Amino acid sequence: MTAFIALLRAVNVGGTGKLPMSDLKRMCEDLGFTAVRTYIASGNVVFASRKSEAAVKAGLEKRLETYAGKPVGVLVRTAAEMAQVAADNPFPDAAPNRTVAVFLDRAPPPDTLAAVRGRNDEQIRLGRREIYIHYGDGMAKSKLVVPAAKTGTARNINTVAALAKMAADL
Predict the structure, then answer these.
(1) What distances in angstroms separate CA 12 from CA 24, 73, 99, one per listed residue?
(2) Model pTM?
(3) Quick check: 13 pLDDT over 60?
(4) Helices then strands (H, E): number in the chain?
(5) Which residues pair with 4 in a beta bridge?
(6) Phi, psi at residue 57, to the nearest 5°?
C-alpha cells in the first residue's frame, strides 16, 4: 500500500466548488482507498491505495466530475513526495502562511519565470513538480500572475507540512 495525498483544485474556495469533506471521504472509500482522512475544507485528502498515482488521479477525477457535473482537477503526491516538497521549501525562514507550493502534474516549463507578470516583492523558485512562491507582504494585495500555475493548485507550507505528517502516519 502507498500513502497518497490528493489535492483538489478550486474546491471550497471563495464560495465556488462547494464539496463537503464528508462527501470527498466517501468518494475515496468508494474507490477502494483505505485510511481516508481529509484536512481542512479546501480539498485535501490523505489515504492508502495499491493503485498507481495515475490510476488514483484518473479514478478520483472521474468520480468528482460525476459529482460536480464538471471537471475537477486533482494533483496527487505520495507521502514521500509530499515530505520532499516540505523539505525542499526554498524559503525556510519565511512565514509559512505566506509561502505556497503550487502543485503541478509535471515539471514547470523552462519559461516559467520569464512569463511571470505583476511581480512586486514576491520570490519565486521552481521545484520538481512545484512552483514555490513567497508572498512578502501577503497574498491579499498581490498582483502576481504565474501562467504555468494555472493548471495547478497551491497550498501554504503549513498545510504541506500537515499533509506530509498525516500521510507519514498512515
Answers:
(1) 12, 13, 20
(2) 0.94
(3) no
(4) 4, 8
(5) 47, 78
(6) -60, -50
How many structural domains comprise the chain? 2
Distance CA 64, CA 97 (A): 28
Domain extent for 92: 88-168
Cβ partners under 8 Å of residue 156, min gap 6: 96, 97, 98, 99, 100
Specify the pairing of strand 44-49 against strand 2-8. Answer: antiparallel
CA dihedral 162, 108, 139, 160 (to 10 degrees): 0
Residue 93 sits in the same domain as residue 114: yes
- pLDDT for 64: 93
Mean pLDDT, all residues of the chain? 94
pLDDT tens digits, one per residue of 29-68: 999 999 999 999 888 999 999 999 999 999 999 999 999 8
